[in-house]
Amino acid sequence: LGARVLPCGGFGGRRSQARHARMQAAQCVVGRGDFVCASGSVRWRRDRGVRTMMRRRPAPGARFSSASRQPRGDRAASSSTALHVTASSSPSGAEVVITEGNRIPDDCRFEPRLWEWQGHQVRWCRQTSEANKDSSKVVLLVHGFGASISHFRFNIPKLIEDEHAHTVYAVDLLGLGGSEKPPKPAGRECYSMELWRDQLIDFIEQVIYTTEGKEVELVLVGNSIGSLAVLHVMSHWGRRDSVQGIALLNCAGGMNNKIKFVPSEYMQSGNWATGLQVALAQPILALIDFLLNNKSIARNLFDNYRSKENVEKVLTAVYSNKANVDAELVNLIHAPSEEVTALDVFVSILTSDPGPRPKDLLPKLAADLPILLLWGEEDPFTPIDGDVGTLFQELAEARDGGGAAAEADVTTGKVSFVRIAGAGHCPHDDRPEEVHSHLLPWLRSL
User: Fold this and answer.
1) Which of 91, 334, 360, 408 is least enclosed, having the fewest CB within 10 Å?
2) How many CB atoms sit inside 10 A of residue 322's CB?
3) Distance between CA 37 and CA 5 in Å, rounded?
């Protein structure tokens, strides 16, 4: 299959641009997540910190990894800097187009693929096993803020090895992970929960249904902002009746922390003192937005925030199981921040409207929808006894009339709230074994 290579302009003056313009087109054949060099004309080199494609004569048929686009064996030398040439394919794998200004970070171990959504490249993966040929259940995993499909590094292998051998999909939200990071996504002025809701709905319809068929038994699983995105999908999607159940792990209260600073929320509940304090804080929030929208100030803050040392420090505070805060985890959080437009995405997410809260979305869900709520007890971001954690515990109590940790039946549906001891905001990666001990039996029961 012939692939057209676009020149990488803007590096090293006219001589460098002319050299890029003379790059020989590489013919590529797409396998299961691999790119196979058929004509033998590509090598990688570093140009001012950016990897670019230059001419070489490797052995015909040499295989290139879909994650780094480097020959196997050179992966150790890979970096998370932006690629100026990457490849994308349609869900059916029928077409490959080399595009400019995009890349897939090197943090993914799950044979990543690209899907074009509203003019932007979105990274996703599909994992299954030979034992899953006759199964119709599909699990879609949705990550949280700053994470990616690689954050399910312990969960995907377990899900496809389970006795029911589920087919697993995971997708990077636009602006995060290995997906493209446009400052103004999909023709919109800023990032929002509604943007990610629409992305997930289209991903299900255009990728999962195209690949698996529309009769699959679909289950949605999310962490943090990913959980909130799942709630948005289930409150809006016209085909939400086809979803067998949802699992929410430490669900976020909003796209950002502005959701905690809405004075009317406290005043309506009679908490006038807190409401007044929050109202008085509004000028400070406006100042923070103003500072973040100043490019030079935002750049300094962002560079300090995204340093590997700071990422590790934050993860150590968020994770109870310090052993899982390893180099792989730090890299999968840090790598996407190296992209040129990552700062614009970061500012947009932090300064935009936080969107509807879980309590606004829950009434729109079907009363018989099975819901599994897993909550790390040591979460500093969305505490188990905070507004959101309490909301979901009350939901389980209301539907079963008993304790929040028990399964609750409403007609044919279930709501279960489970505390994960010794886990923080990301229990699936912090204490994966404990999460699996609840998640896998629940999936089998659907």
Assistant:
1) 360
2) 10
3) 13
Residue 177: left (phi > 0), alpha (psi -120 to 50), or beta? Answer: left
Helices (H) and strands (E) in the chain, counts: 16, 16
- Burial profile 401-416: b = 16 or more Cβ within 10 angstroms, e = fewer: eeebeebbeeeebbbb
**425-440 average pLDDT score:** 96
Instruction: Give the C-alpha separation, 320 to 312, whole Å.
Output: 13
Q: For residues 233 and 193, what is the distance between their CA atoms, to the nearest angstrom? A: 10
Total-model pTM: 0.71
pLDDT at 246 over 50: yes
Closest by CA to 316, choosing from 172, 426, 168, is 426
| Euclidean distance between CA atoms 214 and 216, whole angstroms | 6
Q: Which two tokens stand for residue 192?
A: 């929002």
Distance CA 157, CA 128 (A): 9
pLDDT tens-digit series, residues 266-295: 445 555 455 455 445 445 545 555 455 667
C-alpha 315/C-alpha 175 separation (Å) is: 21
Residue 29, pLDDT score: 31
Contact present, 224 and 254 (Cβ < 8 Å): no
**Angle between helical axes of 272-280 and 282-292 (0-180°, round to 10):** 40
Q: Which of 307, 309, 290 is nearest to 298 (CA)?
A: 290
- The DSSP line for 259-278 is GG--HHHHHHTT-HHHHHHH
d(CA 11, CA 389): 50
CA distance 340 to 103: 11
Q: What is the 3-state composition of the chain as percent helix, strand, coil, each rounded to the nearest 5? A: 40, 20, 40
Q: Are strands 85-89 and 43-47 parallel, antiparallel or unpaired?
A: unpaired
Longest dimension (CA), the chain: 74
Non-local (6+) Cβ contacts of 232 within 8 A are 193, 194, 196, 197, 200, 355, 356, 361
In this predicted structure, the answer to whether residue 74 has a pLDDT above a threshold of 70 is no
Integer Cα distance of 293 and 275 in angstroms: 27
pLDDT tens digit sequence for 344-371 = 998 888 888 888 989 999 999 988 899 9
Q: What is the pLDDT of residues 210-244, one digit of tens each?
A: 999 888 899 999 999 999 999 999 999 989 889 99
H-run or E-run covering 167: strand 167-171
β-bridge partners, 35:
30, 64
